[in-house]
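[job 0417] fold request received: FAD-dependent oxidoreductase domain-containing protein 1
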Amino acid sequence: MSSTPHSYDVVVVGAGIIGLTIARQLLNGSDLSVAVVDAAVPCSGATGAGQGYLWMVHKDPGSEKWELAMRSRELWEKFADDIKHQGIDPQEVLGWKKTGSLLVGKTSQEMAALEGKVKQLSKAGLKAELLSSIDLKEVEPALVIGHEGGAAFLPDDYQLDARRSVAYIEKENRKYATEGRYGEYYNQPLTGLLRSGNGKVEAVQTSKNLLCSKKAVVIATGCWTGSLMQELIKDLGIEFDVPVKPRKGHLLVIENFNSFKLNHGLMELGYVGHQDATLQPGAETSSVSMTATMDTSGNLVLGSSRQFVGFSTEISEHIINQIWERAREFFPTLRYFSPTDLEKNREVRVGLRPFMPGGKPMIGLLPGLSNVFLAAGHEGEGLSMALGTAEMVADMILGNLPKVDNAPYALHSRCT
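[job 0417] inference complete; emitting structure tokens
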């Protein structure tokens, strides 16, 4: 235990993509000092296990999240452009690539839904096209969907590599350490909040250090936020439900895959319902739908699954086989392989997405504590909504006018 406390303006708890981008936003956009605390290290959770897409093709322009998703996309584009203007290749440091995305359907009913999706996205200001099965043969020769099928195509969607992006953001944040404005406290679980009489949290206690927070504390601990907050506030006389729960996901990565190349990111239409489905937490029920990307290293990344099985991150070969079988329905070339053929070349990523009932993250001030903010519950959209979330939280802390309406994410309406 440290006898001498360290003092910062803001303490951010959580070093996933949400926590690190909040720290980045505050460091770049103010003169505040920031500490980042994590029970493990960056990319230990959902961030490191994700597929790395920044796609709008499966999102709903009528949803409350749309504005935040669009703002985040705009900020990612600006981030990549700024890197380019420094003479650095954003593909090298972020894995940034404009691949475009395809939302694929096989039946005439799915094709009708995709036609509606294209109209909806076009009306919302995005460049969107409806591709027939013949069009798809031209742009994605390995994909086979039958003559009735087709796809919604967004040519301006992007992919990135979450691990590379996190490493670059960390490197950029660390430049402020020489000014005494930045500190990292990894492998240090948070053990308590120290509160003053006026409701303000004045410090956070980790397993090794006492970190004073002069202005704010931000909790951005992904799927652990619900259980962590339950522990932290039980001694503070506050009753508040943070219903963030872990939703397990598997991805199958085939390294140096060369049997075919993908030119775009792909996702079956069924993914939209499977993402939005409010399965009963605690149930063993799993859902699998086809997603496929090829990363900048030439690895084939196949997904994806969703399960409620608590905090377990054990690999399930049954789920991996389901992902493989689902992918083979869209890419017949894969039928020449079995999962055992590729065992030497495979990586399995297992992550716990922070699931929120209703599908919206919690972003805002925690009722009962005058300077503690939550930013959690982004499910599988943490990467795509990170920069907008970071801007929103920083604006709240700094007292700036919001760029995006933050009311849909406010915590007061979640109180029990």
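[job 0417] notes: Residues 101-156+245-354 form a domain with the D-Amino Acid Oxidase; Chain A, domain 2 fold (CATH 3.30.9.10). The radius of gyration is 22 Å.
[job 0417] exit 0
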